[in-house]
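Data deposition worksheet. Section B asks for the primary sequence of the deposited chain exactly as it was used as input, without tags or linkers unless they were present during the calculation. Section C holds the resulting structure in C-alpha cell form. Section D is free text for depositor observations; keep each observation to a single sentence. Incomplete worksheets are returned to the depositor.
Section A, Depositor: J.P.
Section B:
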Amino acid sequence: MHQYIPSSNDEQMEMLKSVNAKSIEDLFVDIPESIRLKKNLNLKGPLSEPELLNHMNEISKEIKTTDELTCFLGAGVYDHFIPSVVKHVVSKPEFYTAYTPYQPEISQGTLQAIFEYQTMICNLTGMDVSNASMYDGATALSEAAKMASVVTNRKKVLVSSSVNPEAKKVLRTYMRFSSIELIEIDDLDGTVNLELLKSSLDSDTAAFIVQNPNFFGIIEDLKEIEEIVHKNGSLLIMYVEPISLSILKTPGEIGADIAVGDGQPLGNSLNFGGPHLGFMATTKKLIRKLPGRIIGETNDVDGKRGYVLTLQAREQHIRREKATSNICTNHSLNALTAAIYMTALGKKGIKEVALQCFKKSHYAYNQLIKTNKYKMLFNKPFFMEFAIVCSDNSVDAINNVLLSNGIIGGYNLEKEYKKYKNAMLLCVTEKRTKDEIDKLVNIMGGVVNEL
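Section C:
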C-alpha cells in the first residue's frame, strides 16, 4: 500500500454512490449500534506530512526490542539466534510473494518448499505425516482437539493446566463452538496429576492434551500418561517445543496420536507475538482426518520428479460440514522460514542449540538459587525455562528494576496461576552469554536491597 492515497470529498461521494450508500456511516449498518464507537478517536488535530513523520518517529522510539534489550522472557515465544542465511533466502521475491497455489501443480517451487517442510516436521516429531502448517501453535492444538473428537466420535477433551494459558484460551473458544466439553486437569506440583487424570477419563473422552516441556518448563514423565490415556481408548495429543525434540523423546517414540506446537523457535522472529506458524503431525492411521494441505511427491508423464497437492480436506474444496477444518490457508512463508532454518542447522546444529539452552538455563538457575534470595518453585527436571519464587518482592517490581538495566525479565506466573504467588518463569536460550546471565543474577541478587 502506498503511503499517500488522495481521497477528496468528491471522490468519496463518487465511491459511495457506486455502492448505493449516502454516507460512510451507511457502510456499517450491519454492525449493531450498541457496539459502535460514539465518540471521536483520541487523536491530535491535522498535521503536515513532516510533522506527522516526526510524530510517528517519536512514538517508534518508545518501542524497545531485543536488539536493545537482553531477553530472559519465554512463555511461548523465544529469543533464539536466527542465522543470516534464513532471512536472505526467505526474502527472495520468488518466495516472499508466494501465496496459496490455486492451481497448485503449476507452483512446483511452492509445493516442493511445503513438501520439504512437512518432511522435516515428520523427522523432528517422529510422526508419520505432517500438514502444510496452521496459523500458530494455539490453532494447531485446537484443530487437533476437534480432529480427535471426529476420530473417536466422542465429545469431551481433557487438557492439563500446565499447557500454555494462551493456547488454552483459543482451545476453549474452539471447543465452545464445536459443542465439545473441555475439562482442565489441575496440575500437581507443576506436572500432570495422574490420579486426577485417571478419575476424569471416561467413555466419552476423545483425547487428553499434555505439553512437553510444559508451560512451567518442566519435562513431563509421559510413559504412564500414554498408558493411562490409551487404555481408555482416548487419543494422546502432545503440544511440544520443537527445539527440545532434538534431545528429548519425540511424540512418535512416546506413542502420541497427534503432535502439535508453535514453529516460532524454528528461525521465525519474535514479531511482537506473531505471525508465527503452527505445526501439526499425526500417524498414518489418522491421515485422512488431518486438516489442511498435504503435499506429496510423484513422477510426471515424462518420469520426472514432481509435487502434487495430495490431500486438501478444507472447506474451500468440499462442503463446510464435511471439512476437517475451516482454516482456509497456511502460513507458508513462516513454514518456509522454518524449513530453511532446519536445513541450515541440520540435525547436529539443532541438537547443539538444544544442549546450549539446557546448559545455560541450568547455570542461570543454580546461580540464582545460590544468592539465597530465591527458591525453586518445582523440584522437577526442566529444559530451558524454570520457575523460581521471589519471596521478598513482587515479580513486577523485580522486572521493573531489570528493565531499567536493559533486561527483559521473566513471566509473572501469578497472572494465570493464582496459587503460584510471587513466582517468576525465566527462559535462557542459546543466545544468552555467560556475561548476560551473570548480569541478570547480580541485579536480581541485589534487587531485594533496592526495593
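Section D:
The mean pLDDT is 91.
The longest helix spans residues 332-370.
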